[in-house]
Amino acid sequence: MSKRIEIDDDIYRHIASHTQHIGESASAILRRLLGLDQQQDQPQSTAAVEPKVAEKAHGRTIFDSMTSADLAGQRSVVARFLYILEMLHKCHPEMFPKVLQISGRDRQYFSRSAAELEASGTSTNPKQIPNSEFYVVTNNNTTRKKSMLNQVALELGYDQSEAEKIRDFL
Which Gene Ontology CC terms are recorded (predicted)? Predict the structure, then answer.
């Protein structure tokens, strides 16, 4: 049986900072930090450490929706970029339209159509974010893509340290 407890934000950040893999549960992290044995006779909770702020649609965040194996299956930077955006959309569909306001100095980064992105600059190479109605420019270097992921995570309610973890998935 699992119980819910409220903890202060600084304690949450400390627990989350000790996550060893995507989707690791708060109980597993605390058991490891406290030197306790894993429970043998009770099923492990699958609820991952997740921020209250970013908890949305199905009560899930990217940290418990995406596995490292799925991420590793994406063979290129662009494929990983699109996959991470797909998972963020899946976790936060109601808030995802906020990404439409993210743009660069001279170009729009997100839209609901490829044509709109193509019109906002040259060599944008727009791609549809899988399983969504959103498009993103993909003709940016990896550093810019990481910056875009960081901005998307912040728009969706993740704190800065979580946004950096999401950015570093790329």
Answer: cytoplasm
